[in-house]
# Entry
Amino acid sequence: PPSSSTPPPPFKSFKTDLTPLMSFIFVIASMRRRRCSQSNTVKAKAGIQQQTRERKLNLVVAVEREKES
# Structure
């Protein structure tokens, strides 16, 4: 019998129905992950800035001490 006349198996149609949902979930998950990683990098950058600020302050203090002595 020709395959075009026979109805597709339920699993196949279920798969095609599920695919957009899966991709949608994947997109949302990746967006969430990206948002988390972005906030983490922002925190890391802030921490690095804080460290460099402290180092600069330490350098300034050291220079001032050198001048005094």
The chain is about 85% helix and 0% strand. The chain has a mean pLDDT of 77. Residues 31-69 form one domain.
